[in-house]
From TrEMBL:
This is OmpH family outer membrane protein. It comes from Geoanaerobacter pelophilus. The lineage of its organism: Bacteria, Pseudomonadati, Thermodesulfobacteriota, Desulfuromonadia, Geobacterales. Gene3D superfamilies: Skp domain (3.30.910.20). One of its GO terms (molecular function) is unfolded protein binding. Residues 1-20 form the signal peptide. GO terms for cellular component: cytosol.
Length: 174
């Protein structure tokens, strides 16, 4: 689908000069690079890392508690009655399920947070690309990741988009 859109844009860009008697100006952006290099992207990555470390510490404590309970159950197994061993086994299973559930929840929360950050950043970059396109009189601005086979270095406007994003980000923080 993206290739069809890209091909359509390129055909329109090529047809536009015949109609408007001007040369098309096409820009290319590496959106992934722009997201990872802009200030908002760097802050989002730091936030995700912080949250991940928090979840990892929580999961490590749960795992340690499980292993401690398991070691105690194995050590005391000979002294316990059948009912007590069964109760300990149920306790171990519960702790194991709690750990697995929390691990799954943490992964889902990190994915959602990452998706939210990415959505906000790409939305902001989209409006910046629109401004750059208008100001630079671009016929089209294409994302490099959609399968472009070649583009000249002068067509790459990623650095310009990142710079504008950083300027907007720093002015929004003030």
């Amino acid at each position: 689908m993206k290739r069809i859109i890209t091909a359509t844009l390129l055909m329109l860009a090529c047809a536009a000069p015949a109609m408007a008697a001007s040369t098309p100006k096409i820009g290319v952006v590496d959106l992934q690079r722009a997201v990872s290099e802009c200030s908002a992207g760097i802050e989002a990555r730091a936030d995700l890392l912080k949250k991940t470390e928090k979840y990892n510490a929580e999961l490590k404590a749960l795992l340690s508690d499980f292993e401690k309970t398991k070691a105690e159950a194995e050590k005391d197994a000979a002294k316990l009655t059948a009912d007590e061993r069964a109760e300990r086994e149920i306790q171990l299973q519960k702790k194991s399920r709690d750990f697995q559930n929390r691990q799954r929840e943490a992964q889902e929360e990190i994915k959602l947070l990452e998706a939210d950050h990415l959505k906000r950043i790409t939305s902001r970059l989209g409006s910046i690309m629109a401004k750059v396109g208008d100001e630079g009189n671009y016929t089209a601005i294409l994302d490099r990741s959609v399968g472009l086979f070649y583009f000249g270095k002068d067509a790459d406007i990623t650095a310009q988009v990142v710079q504008r994003a950083n300027e907007e980000h720093s002015s929004n923080k003030k």
